[in-house]
Write a structure and sequence with these properties.
This protein is an alpha/beta fold. The chain has one domain: Leucine Aminopeptidase, subunit E, domain 1 (3-Layer(aba) Sandwich), CATH 3.40.220.10. Helix content is about 40%, strand content about 10%. It has six helices and four strands, in the order αβααββααβα. It has a four-stranded mixed β-sheet, covered by helices on one side. Strand 2 and strand 3 form a beta hairpin. Helix 1 packs parallel to helix 6 and helix 4 runs parallel beside helix 6. It starts with a helix and ends in a 6-residue tail after the last helix.
């Protein structure tokens, strides 16, 4: 819903098969999963995470429980996990922190959007759901908002460049068809 962010995404989407830019709410996209650029504790009280918490009433509890059970209470920036939203669509939320603490203002030279995007893409590429199914088979479309561009204060152009770099890194190793 942020025009400068949409323009920045458009500037890097060209030539990247499978990437589409949507102007509007991330929740308007037909997708199996949405990305939460939350904090390492899994609190979902600000920015797009607050929107998710309202749309999916139990998702913050799911994220916090998974962070505690799988990561000792802190999901590091550069890691991601997937939890159910409790809704039929999107069925999944991928938590990929862009900041360690809630409300943290990120420095101009941060690489956190890159690390978060890379974590999401790597999880999709090689992760599995609790029932053993590969994430790639259960999730075909992932709706990704700006990473760190709201509360974190990352410039839209910085975010877009870093997400594109993560995309290129992760998918450059896939065989071309």
């Amino acid at each position: 819903m942020d025009e400068p962010l949409a323009r920045a995404w458009l500037g890097v989407a060209d030539g990247r098969a499978g990437v589409e830019v949507h102007r509007g709410s991330v929740l308007d996209i037909v997708a199996e999963a949405v990305v939460s650029p939350a904090n390492s504790s899994g609190w979902m009280r600000g920015g797009i995470d607050a929107v998710y918490a309202r749309a999916f009433p139990f998702v913050e509890d799911h994220v916090r429980s998974a962070v505690l059970a799988l990561h000792g209470g802190e999901l590091p920036v550069g890691e991601a996990l997937v939890v159910p939203t409790g809704e039929p669509e999107p069925q999944w939320l991928i938590s990929a922190p862009t900041m360690r603490t809630p409300g943290e203002r990120l420095p101009r030279d941060t690489v956190h959007p890159y690390l978060a995007a890379r974590a999401v893409l790597r999880l999709w590429q090689g992760g599995r759901l609790d029932d053993g199914r590969p994430l790639r088979r259960a999730i075909r479309t992932i709706a990704m908002p700006g990473l760190g561009t709201g509360v974190g204060g990352v410039a839209p152009e910085t975010c877009a460049r870093q997400v594109a770099a993560a995309w290129d890194e992760v998918f450059s190793t896939l065989p071309r068809r």
